[in-house]
Amino acid sequence: MTMQTPVPSFGSLDDGALDQLFREARTHYAWLSRPVPEALLRQAVELAKMGPTHANAQPMRVLFVKSPEAKEKLKAALAPGNVEKTMTAPVTAIVAHDMAFVDLLPRVLPHMDARPWFANNQRLVEETAKRNSALAGAYLLLALRAVGLDTGPMSGFDNAKVDELFFADSTWRSNFLINIGYGDRDKTFPRNPRLSFEEIARIA
Fold it and tell me: What is the pTM of this model?
């Protein structure tokens, strides 16, 4: 009989961690001129990939746009209101999904063959890729906060243009952007109101 290693039971995170991830974390629009170490980006991806996705498919792909040349290329796809905050961010992540994620299912879900689920069903492939890359992108945002970085997630860009500029010869497709760096906390806006539990949730 094979003995399985017991999964540790964790309690709640302390208030400091909850503040860093949620309560005190903000969407940033202005950035300090402080570089982001590549090691932190790698650490955040290593954390984010541990979150659950359908069939462990892991369709999220990320392009970290960092060089002046790549930033200038991205600029052409941005809505006017998003140009300055993106150009001044040390890094911008293009959170994308891989439309060929099905090819990797035997590797990431080795105990069953999930490929027939998606055979001849391009709509399911697209829905699964986009939904689960958005889910994993949220994990990435929290992972970036967890390693001490600030974030500014956003839409407000031309997806087709981004795909043309960055992913023309690949199976990746853009989903949303995350500006990354060390935010200028003196330039954040007052936090907008949040809905109450009763407005958000029901218990059946």
Answer: 0.94
